[in-house]
Design brief:
binds magnesium ion, mainly alpha
Length: 117
């Protein structure tokens, strides 16, 4: 998995380098672009309310939704590379923090924020 992420990051960096786009990819612009792509992902689900509606929608638009998820991940992986953040280490570290904030015995089956537990 780690090497898959490194491979994807290298692919993204090569794509950017071939187009000489690194000059435009400052952290502010990248984080904004990431948020725009996250909004494009949300747009697919905006007016879907039930699991049946989602399933029906995905039967025709799964690849479009996957494309938006990929856009988010592309910007995120590139931003992590720009800021010298290791994706695997960052996720592992954050999941440990999440586990401490949301202990199973207090969190299982409820959606309360950690400050309410
Ligand atoms: Mg997009």
């Amino acid at each position: 998995m780690d090497s898959d992420i490194k491979k994807l990051t290298a692919m993204i960096q090569a794509f950017v380098a071939e187009r000489d786009w690194a000059q435009f990819h400052d952290p502010k612009s990248m984080s904004m672009a990431l948020a725009v792509e996250a909004s494009e992902l949300m747009e697919h689900f905006t007016w879907l309310h039930t699991p049946a509606q989602v399933e029906s929608y995905l039967s025709e638009h799964r690849e479009d939704v996957a494309d938006e998820m990929a856009d988010v991940m592309v910007y995120l992986l590139e931003l992590m590379a720009i800021l010298n953040v290791d994706p695997v280490e960052a996720v592992e570290r954050k999941m440990k923090k999440n586990a401490a904030k949301y202990p199973v015995e207090k969190s299982k089956g409820n959606r309360k924020k950690y400050i309410e537990l």
